[in-house]
Amino acid sequence: VSDKVRQQEYEAFTLETGRKWEKTKEPLFPASTISWHDAQAFCTWLTERERKAGKLAANEAYRLPTDHEWSCAVGIGEQEDAAKLPREKNGKIPETYPWGRAWPPPAGAGNYGGKEIEPALAAGKYDWVKKALNDYQDAFVERAPVGSFAANSFGLYDLGGNLHEWCEDFYDSAQQNRLLRGGCWDINNRGELTSARRFSADQNAHWLSAGFRVVLAAAPATAPVPVETAAPWENLLAPLTPALVEQTGHGWWLKGGMLYSPNAKFATLPLPGSFASTSYQMSVKLRQLAPKEVFHVILPVGDRMTGFDLDGFSGSYTGLNMVDGRETKNLPGAVEGRQIKDSQLHDLKVIVRLDGTDAKISTTLDTHPLYEWAGPIAALSQHSGWATSPPGALAFGTLAADWVVSEVKVKRLEGK
Predict the structure, then answer these.
(1) Is 40 helix (H, G, I), strand (E, B) or coil?
(2) Are residues 153 and 168 in contact, defined by beta-carbon separation less than 8 angstroms?
(3) Buried b / exposed e along 24-36 (16+ C-beta atoms within 10 A)
(4) Cα 224 to the chain's mean position, in Å?
(5) Which residue, 10, 51, 69, 254, could crosslink 245 as a Cys pair with Cβ 3.0–4.6 Å?
């Protein structure tokens, strides 16, 4: 298990991959305002980088720690049932802290919301913090450089404070929010400082108080190809002709085997086939000649139709277009910032997986996790401007010219 990932390490990742992130502190401070998906992408990048450098074997990989691994690192693993969900174990070991059982925390115990935060509270900052932690003070109002406090018996720093840490697990059986462990610089509550305390958050959230550490572990063994991957890919461009696209595409055109978007509002192009009431995976190779407006993918989900916006609202937000009657920019978990910033070819993948009356929609861009949503199918709908394609049909939509699509493949998935 590593210590918290620092700004300098995360910045190297963002510079190399082009991932959006705003550095807020000096290099040795822990990296924050990072989503669970961002942390996953960092682990993938670091694994690939160190394998290429000969520092990792093919059977080794970096990932986030599991809930039980984090408990073991903080010294309570033997007191918990590894098989239980994080929510079931939340706060179940009282009066046991990362520094021991003493209360209040001894001097130098960690970076918490002690008396040092009082002047900032008096000035109106951090309105979510109601008061300072009694009988404790450290030298840092917000984050502290990694390693500023003593390590625990395993040589690990900041398991109790500085920033909450993303873990691999979902928080509970609903499988919507992800797990965070550890205290933070703004924590002032005795119960929230215990080693068994768990927190949960939307996996797309970018909290100032959330960071992560990584684990070097054995890479998962290559599993037999599941039934769902044995299904053939369907090439949805192959059946299209220039005349058919002209007839149905609201200005789209087909030339040289590639689709081009028109300079028109809410221009939709339905694709062949019906994908209603089935799970499926979609792969789209696309590029944008000039950064302008959204690339919209109309998705059948069960008996509903919904849409996914890539760089919606003039490049401000990426995510589902309409959930519970709210648009992308007003939805929790929407990914902020333009994702496609050049005219190079990119690979967008969308997986729609049905589970009874619920669904899970996950997306990647160039193999990096991008956006994920899970919830009741009944919550999904379409903006009226995009609701022009046949029920059950996949479709593309744009608000402006310059999108070029060179490949569209779909695979039907069996089971959940």
Answers:
(1) helix
(2) no
(3) eeeeebbbbbbbb
(4) 27
(5) 254
Structure tokens belonging to residue 271:
């694709």
Backbone angles phi, psi at 146, to 5 degrees: -60, 130
**Rounded Cα gap, residues 262 and 317, in angstroms:** 22
Contact 349, 281 (CB under 8 A): yes
Instruction: Classify the C-alpha dihedral 320-324-329-330 as positive or negative.
Output: negative
For 3-13, what is the mean pLDDT?
93
Using one digit for the tens of pLDDT, what is the confidence trace for 332-363?
A: 788 988 899 888 899 999 999 999 999 999 99
Would you give the DSSP letter of residue 94?
T
Q: Is the pLDDT of residue 302 over 90?
A: yes
- What would you measure as the largest C-alpha separation in the chain, in angstroms? 77
Q: What is the dihedral of CA 6, 156, 159, 90, to 10 degrees?
A: 130
408 has a pLDDT exceeding 90 = yes
DSSP state of 270: E
Helix 36-52 and helix 7-17, axial crossing angle in degrees, nearest 10: 80
What is the pLDDT at residue 230?
44
Give the pLDDT score at 1.
Answer: 63
Give the span between the Cα atoms of 304 and 269, in whole angstroms. Answer: 18
pLDDT band at 415 (very low <50, low <70, confident <90, very high): low
Using an 8 Å Cβ cutoff, are 210 and 32 in contact?
Answer: yes
Decide if 240 contacts 249 (C-beta within 8 A). Answer: no
Of residues 288, 254, 251, 244, the one with CA closest to residue 268: 251
Kindly tell me if the per-residue pLDDT of 311 is higher than 60: yes
DSSP letter at 159 equals: S
Task: Work out whether the CA dihedral 47, 52, 57, 58 comes out positive or negative.
Answer: positive
At residue 228 the predicted structure's pLDDT band, cuts being 50, 70 and 90, is very low
Q: pLDDT-based confidence at 213, cuts 50/70/90?
A: very high
| Distance (Å, whole) CA 70 – CA 196 | 10
At residue 16, the 3 state secondary structure works out as helix
- The structure tokens listed for 104 are 């209040």
Inter-CA distances, 180 with 86, 105, 160, 202, 280, Å: 10, 22, 12, 10, 31
| Tokens 């509550």 -> residue | 189
Q: What is the pLDDT of residue 22?
A: 81
DSSP state of 384: G
Tell me the H-state helices in 182-270: 227-230, 242-248
